[in-house]
Amino acid sequence: MQPLVPASAGIRLPNIQRSSVAALLALLSASLYMASIEASLGEGYPERTIKIVVPFPAGGPTDVAARLVAQSLSPRLGHSVIVENQAGAGGRIGAKAVATAVPDGYTLLLGGTNVNAITGAIYKNLGFDPIKSFAPVAMIYTDSLALAVSPRVPADTCQELVKYAKDNPGKLKYGAPPGIYTHFAGEFFKNKTATDILFVPYKGGAPVVTVVLGGHIDMVFNNKSTVLPHFKERKLKALAVTSQSRWPELPDTPTMQEVGISGFPSEVIFGLLAPAGTSMMIIGRLNSAVNDALRAAEVRASLDAVGVEARIGTPQEFAETLDEQARQWKTVIDEIGIKME
Q1: Among 221, 229, 224, CA closest to 261
Q2: Which helix (H) or strand (E) is 100 found in, with range?
Q3: Kind and range of the H or E element at 125?
Q4: CA distance 239 to 172
Q5: In Å, how far from its chain's centre is CA 44?
C-alpha cells in the first residue's frame, strides 16, 4: 500500500496555523526574556542603602512604624535602611515621590489606609494612582482610633460631649491633617451626631495631639499608638474607640458602635509599598524580611508597648486588604460629602 503522504513531502501547516505557532513562540520567548531580566534585577538585592519614605512629619504613627521597620530590616537585609520624611499635602507629596521613583527596590513607601486606600476617593489629578502605582510589599500592623478630649472640656462621656456641643454650637474645635482618616473621623462624628464642631487643619497627627495637650483645641481623633500614653497619664480623656471591641488597656471606654455611631472603619493599616513594576523577586525578599522581623520577640514587644497589632501576610493579601479598605472609605467619604481640591 502506498503511503498517503510521500516520505519526501514536507508537512505544510495552513498559514493561519503557522501564524499562531509563530505568535506562541514569540510570546514564550518574550516571557523567558522578561523572566531573565526580573531574575537579574532581583539577584544580589540589596546592594546599597534602602530608603523608606514617610509622607508625614516625624513623630506620628506612620513615622513610628517606618522607624521600627527600618531598624528591624537593616540586619536582615545586610544593608542600611533609612527613613526620610517627605511631609505635605496629606501624604500625597511623599506618595507621589515613591510612585514615580525607579522600581528597583531602593525607594519604598510607608503607606496603607491614608495614602493608598483613601486619597483616590477624594482627590483627582494626583499625578499617580494610589492603588495601581504601587506594588504592595507587606502589611506591618493595624491600629485603631480614639476620640480624645482635653480635660478642660466639661464632658466625661460621648453623650455628654454631644450635649455640650449642641448647647454650644461652634465652640468646640478638633484638629487633623486635612484629607486623612483622622479628619474624616471628626467629620463622620459631626455628621452622625448633628453637632457643630469647628475643624482646625494641621500638618501632622503628632502636632495635633500637642495642641490638644496645650489646650489650644478641644479634641482629636487619633491613633491608639499616639494617644494611649496620654490616656494612661490622664492628660487626655478617652470617650470612645473605633475598634470592633474595647481596648484591653481601657476596658471602661466604649466603642463608637456602643455609643450609637456605626459605619466607621474599625482599623487603620500601615504597610510597606514599592513602585509598580518592581521585580517580584525583590518584593518577595522584602516581604520575607518584614514578616521575619514581625515574628521577632523584640519587635513584638515594641508593637505591644504602643498597643498595635502586628499583621503578617503576603503581598497579595495586603493588596486585597487595600482594595477592601478603599471601598469602605469611599462609602464613608460619600456619606460625609467632603470634596477635596
Answers
A1: 221
A2: none
A3: none
A4: 15
A5: 28
Rounded to an integer, what distance in angstroms lies between the CA atom of residue 160 and that of residue 330? 30
> In whole angstroms, what is the distance from residue 15 CA to residue 252 CA?
78
pLDDT at 24: 59
Cβ(179)–Cβ(32) below 8 Å: no
Contact status, residue 116 vs residue 130, Cβ threshold 8 Å: yes
What does the pLDDT read at residue 310? 93
Here the cell at position 144 is 485603631
All 3 cell numbers of residue 149?
A: 478630649
Tell me, what amino acid is at 49? T
Calpha distance 270→253 (Å, rounded)? 24
Question: C-alpha angle with apex 124: 122 to 130, nearest 5 degrees?
Answer: 75
Q: What does the alpha-carbon distance between residue 169 and residue 180 come to, in Å, rounded to a whole number?
A: 24
| Secondary element (H or E) of residue 136 | strand 134-143
Measured CA to CA in angstroms, residue 165 lies from 27, 173, 219 at distances of: 66, 10, 12
Identify the burial level of 295 via C-beta atoms within 10 angstroms of its C-beta, where 0-12 means exposed, 13-18 middle and 19 or more buried: exposed
> What is the mean pLDDT for each group of 10 consecutive residues in the chain (341 residues)?
49 58 58 48 85 89 86 95 91 95 98 92 90 97 96 97 98 93 95 97 87 96 92 97 95 97 92 98 97 94 85 97 94 87 63
pLDDT of 22: 60
- Rounded CA separation 311/320 (Å): 14
Task: Quickly list DSSP for 140-199.
Answer: EEEE-EEEEE-TTSS-SSHHHHHHHHHHSTTT-EEEE-TTSHHHHHHHHHHHHHT---EE
Q: What are the backbone angles phi and psi of residue 109, rounded to the nearest 5°? A: -120, 135
